[in-house]
Amino acid sequence: MKTLLLSLLITFGLVFQAQAQEALSVTPEETWKMTQEQGDEILFIDVRDPVEIMFIGFTDAVDANIPFKLVDRARFSEEKAKFAMDTNPDFVADVDKALEAKGLDRDALIITMCRSGSSRGKPSAEYLLERGFTNVKYIDHGFQGSSAKEGRLKGLRAVNGWQNSGLPWSMDINPDKIYRP
Q1: pLDDT score at 149
Q2: SS3 of residue 96 by DSSP
Q3: Which of 109, 138, 108, 110 is nearest to 28 (CA)?
Q4: Which of 64, 81, 88, 125 could disulfide-link 136, Cβ–Cβ 3.0 to 4.6 Å?
């Protein structure tokens, strides 16, 4: 009986831990509303590499650009036809600094945004949760959104995401918010 009870407690603990570490998504519109209504109480970060922002666009609604992954231009994969991307070793420390600058702590709501939401948005949110931050979400479909499956825009990132939701963005980058190592 003790073994069964112990097994159940361990299983429940592992399930609870797994659930606690899965970041939840929010829409661009929900994020915009939160930044307007409670902007002093949340930290909204763009986790894209700054060069990517330079070519795709930026929203000044974010508090800061803190890349989760940084492009390593010295390592190129011929097979994938892409440069390597490594986790920014200063990511957590930079998020802590951004929270401190707003007078917030690790219990404050943090929202991350990447290009599509899945490759760095959700992983960066989960990375923060695994490191002691308690309330982290990511923007579903990110800044640029998903590719259209059909029609004249087929293959272009013209569906959902911050850019396609009618929210403010620009090709201009706020120099006070862009990441500089």
Answers
A1: 87
A2: helix
A3: 138
A4: 125
Report strand pairing: 82-87 vs 136-139: unpaired
77: helix, strand or coil: strand
Three-state DSSP at 54 gives helix
Q: How does strand 157-159 pair with strand 146-147?
A: antiparallel
| Distance, CA of 120 to CA of 89 (rounded, Å) | 15
Question: Checking DSSP bridges between strand 24-26 and strand 136-139, what pairing results, if any?
Answer: parallel
Token pair belonging to 2: 């003790």
**What is the rounded CA–CA span in Å between residue 162 and residue 149?**
18
Domains and CATH numbers, the chain: 23-165 (3.40.250.10)
pLDDT band (50, 70, 90) for residue 23? confident
Beta carbons within 10 angstroms of residue 110's beta carbon: 26
Total residue count of the chain as it appears in this document: 181
39-43: long-range contacts, CB 8 A cutoff, minimum separation 24: 40/102, 41/104, 41/108, 41/109, 42/104, 42/108, 42/109, 42/110, 42/111, 43/95, 43/98, 43/99, 43/102, 43/104, 43/108, 43/109, 43/110, 43/111
The pair of structure tokens assigned to 1 is 């009986």
Q: Return d(Cα 148, Cα 63) in angstroms, integer.
A: 29
